[in-house]
Amino acid sequence: MSVAPSVRSVRTAAALGTLALLTACATPQNRDPMEAFNRKVFGFNEAVDTAVVAPVARGYVAVTPQPVQTGVTNFLNNLKDVWATVNLFLQGRVGEGAQNILRVAINSTLGVAGLVDVATELQLDRKDEDFGQTLGTWGVPSGAYVVLPFLGPSTVRDTAALPLDLYAGPTQAFSEVRDINVVRGLNIIDVRARLLGASDLLGDVALDKYTFIRDAFLQRRRSQVYNGDVPEEAYDDEPQAWWQPTLPAEGVSWSLPTGSTLNTARPTLGWLPTHQTASLVAVPVNEQAPQMSGPTPEEMAGLRESLDVR
After folding, report:
1. What is d(CA 6, CA 41) in angstroms, rounded to the nearest whole number?
2. Which of these, 5, 47, 192, 267, could form a disulfide with 283 (CB 3.0-4.6 Å)?
């Protein structure tokens, strides 16, 4: 009798038990019960990014012509569209799944193995779906916020789905270890290169980068699960105040760039840069919570220029 399967079973059970415990620990008032640990992992990831990933991405952008960069992005997206199609069907979105099959077929043939995104020009837009979103669609709660080494922000639900997402991702089209490693490396560099501008700006405007990324990630994942149409009850598990402001609930001051407006809808991101200062805004989560609709692209360009972000 082999001992290995038993060991694997114990490890699997322990992992599932840990995930279940983390899910139970998360509450509407505290979506991040592991914050102390998560911040350490976040710091480690930031150090790796600063020392290795970001410099490689900058070098890639510097030496690679833009058409080649676009071709790499399109090629990788075409591979990802295959797994997205499977998830669309698993979510019961049959029509969109069929459309995605057509998208992959067009880009794989007319688009020269996906190097050219012909389908988008034909108004067959990408559907960025993964198994974590599928589990959310099936009613699995997101659970606690988790920061994974090297991989970054996640939740208990997304972490449980991660092995399948990695297995069925872009590398599934290749069998040779060398090819798999090349595709993985290209995907990391491509994603990081496309985020260079945003990460540089974020470093200048966010008072607490960890908190900003966490809250923005959790909001984005919720929006993805509901395809942008989040029902009111989905906000019940949302923290009462995004930035845990020390300011009183009333009298919160707002710093708005010219042309930005306030409305009474649910808040999206709890920050807003201005030309003079860069600050986070405390956003109370309630029915009358103000939401910022700015800055405009022109204002963002002005901010980037004033901060000398490249």
Report:
1. 30
2. 267
Per-residue model confidence as pLDDT tens digits over 175-198: 888 988 999 999 999 999 998 888
Hey, what are 116's tokens? 């050219």
Handedness of CA 133, 136, 138, 144 (dihedral sign): positive
What the block records as the tokens of 200 is 């540089």
What's the whole-model pTM score?
0.68
Cα 293 from Cα 68, distance rounded (Å): 34
How many angstroms separate the first and last alpha carbons of the chain? 61
SS3 145: strand
Task: Calculate helix-pair angle for 297-306, 196-205, nearest 10 degrees.
Answer: 70
Sign of CA dihedral 94, 98, 99, 104: positive
Q: How far is CA 283 from CA 192, 219, 266, 272, in A?
A: 29, 14, 10, 11
